[in-house]
Every structure is written in C-alpha cells, then in structure tokens.
Specification:
Elements lengths: L13 H9 L6 H6 L3 E4 L4 E7 L23 E7 L1 E10 L18 H29 L1 E3 L5 E4 H5 L7 E2 L9 H16 L5 E6 L1 H9 L1 H9 L13 E4 L2 E5 L4 H7 L8 E7 L5 E5 L16 E6 L5 E14 L6 E4 L2
Parallel strand pairs: 1-12, 7-15, 8-10
Antiparallel strand pairs: 2-3, 4-14, 5-6, 8-11, 9-10, 11-15, 12-14, 13-14
Helix pairs in contact: 1-3
Length: 336
C-alpha cells in the first residue's frame, strides 16, 4: 500500500494554509494596534468612496399655512480606488528537510509541512508590516510602495489641496506652542465639521523630544498638577493641548528596509479619532478560482506540489487598501 501523500491529506491546501497564516498573531505596529482603521471585507477589487456635500443650515421661519423654504439636493459622487495586490513567492525542495533536525529538539526531524508553514507565516509577518506602512500612508494622504511609487494620492483623488504643513516652532523657547496648536485644532474642526472623540499625533523621535522639552509645554504640566511627569525621561506617550502625542517607532530593520523611518524624525502626523469610517482598511479576495467574488481575508496562502513530487511552490498574498476618506482633516506638523 503506498505511503500517504502529504498533499492529498490537504495540509497545504488553500483553505488549510490560509487558515494557518491568519491564525498567527498580528504584529501590526502602532497604527494597526491603535484601532484607528476600521477593517472589513469586500468581494471586489475596487472600493468606492461616496461623497455627499451635505450642509447644515438654519431654516428661516415662514407663515403658517404658506409655502416653506426650499433647498437644493445634496451633491453626490463616487470615487473608485483599486485594491493593491501584494504577493510573496517561495519554494521548498523536499531535500531541504532531509536529515535536518527540528529546531529546539535533539532528535526530531523536520517535516516539509513544518517548513512550509514556517515560511508562510514569515511572509505573512512581512505583509503585516506592509499593511502598517500602507496605513501610515493613509494618515499622510499619500500611500506609497516600498520603492516609493505613489499608489494612491488621496488629495488628487478627492480633488482637494494638500493642507499646508504647520510649524510648531519648537526651536524657539519663546514660542507659544499651546496657542499654535490650538489654532491647528480649530482648522481641523472646521474641515471635519463633525463630532469626534479625540486627537492623536504620531510623532518622529526628534519632534517628540523637542515638544516634551519645550518650556511652554512643560509649564502646562506644572499648572495642571502634572509636575511629577516632568521628572521622567521623555515618555513615549503623553497628553498635551487636548491631544495624545505618541512617538512612532519604525525600528531599525524597517527603517533600513525602506531607507527612511515611516514617520520622519522631525515631524508629527495628526489624526482625528472617533469618527466612523474616517479611516478604513478593506481586504479583497485573492486571485484564485475558489476565492473570486468572496469576502476578502487579510492573507491567503497556498502550496502547489512540484513536478515529480520534489517539493512545493509556495505563495502568500494580501489584497488590501487603507484610506482616509476625508484627507482634508489630516495635518502635518513640523518641528521648525
């Protein structure tokens, strides 16, 4: 009787491998961990954002029994965005695990199934970092690829001007930083024109340190009985001016991979929290016969047996898009 074939037992099927890579703990980075982006599945590779130019307005009183005030209909338009496809290909030869000891054991031999799963999960972790980079682009209004290619220019897509960067002039001890930042908040509120629950600023390391050390900022902690905080080293997260300031850590490996930190050292990126569908991530289906027109998952993986049963060809893919649906509320803050 022939030995059972690993592939016929279905450990490397689309369903099995996809389930395995999606069960891995997410390592999404700070923006993913913040819950800022609302995730959902779509069944197509095109996502449309519908804009309604609804306006709040007072109604003029009119005579009882007479005609009332009239108003124009709302203007509506749809803006389509194509979901980006990210794929990592790999190959596992049967001989790779021949006489190879399983890591962490003394005598157990490694299996092809174990090698395939480990490689698939490693590629999924890289795709997770890609998703984080995509979301950083979403809060900048400009989503780019690893090579710097512009994938989505939100300002061009929505036909609006890029909001001017705002300097908090942290290089001068005399700067009224609270007043400058309050003006930024007012401009964001005017652009949003909707209720929100909070403001968060993801900061680069130099910006974060300069803000924390600025005399006018430190004065506010003394006034508000927060002097005990001033005895600390620069905290990674602190509250000031009604906003949460969080130092964004790209990490040395990710910085080297991209050639720059995800958020530049001398800037901050302001986002508004608590507004439904202001920041969205959508996952589209993979390009397999079995998955087209089905709700998308974060990751897909499959392994195809090589000719003559000498190993497997592996691929892991992600089909994702991350957007700010109202980029006019985004702000770039600079140190000087």
């Amino acid at each position: 009787m022939p030995a059972p074939n690993a592939h016929s037992g279905d450990p490397f099927s689309l369903e099995s491998l996809t389930s395995a890579v999606n069960s891995e703990p997410y390592r999404p980075g700070q923006i993913g961990a913040s819950g800022l982006f609302e995730e959902d599945s779509v069944t197509t590779t095109i996502v449309s954002v519908e804009l309604r130019d609804g306006k709040l307005a007072l109604v003029e009183p009119s005579a009882r029994g007479g005609p009332g005030e009239t108003t124009d209909d709302e203007n509506r338009r749809k803006i389509p965005f194509e979901v980006s496809h990210y794929q990592r290909d790999d190959s596992i030869a049967a001989d790779e695990v021949q006489n190879v000891r399983e890591f962490g054991t003394e005598s157990t031999l490694e299996t092809i199934e174990g090698r395939v799963n480990r490689k698939a999960q490693r590629h999924a972790r890289d795709l997770t970092m890609t998703l984080e980079h995509q979301r950083v682009g979403g809060i900048k209004g400009n989503v780019t690829s690893k090579s710097g290619k512009v994938l989505i220019d939100l300002y061009a897509a929505f036909g609006i001007a890029v909001p001017a960067a705002v300097s908090l002039e942290l290089d001068s001890d005399a700067t009224n930083v609270p007043g400058l930042f309050q003006d930024v908040v007012y401009s964001v509120e005017d652009a949003l024109d909707e209720q929100y629950t909070g403001i968060r600023v993801f900061t680069g390391r130099d910006f974060h340190k300069a803000l924390w050390m600025h005399p006018k900022v430190r004065e506010t902690f003394v006034i508000n009985t927060g002097a005990v905080l001033l005895k600390q080293d620069v905290p990674d997260v602190f509250n000031f001016g009604g906003a949460t300031w969080e130092r964004y850590k790209t990490g040395a490996k990710a910085t080297a991979d991209l050639g720059a930190p995800y958020i530049a050292a001398n800037e901050g990126r302001l986002v508004v929290e608590g507004v439904p569908e202001l920041f969205i991530t959508r996952f589209a289906p993979a390009d397999y016969n079995e998955t087209v027109n089905t709700p998308g998952l974060p990751f897909y993986s499959r392994a195809i047996e090589k000719r003559n049963g000498k190993g497997y060809d592996l691929e892991v893919q992600m089909n994702a898009i991350s957007l700010c649906t109202r980029p006019q509320v985004l702000r770039k803050l600079t140190l000087t």
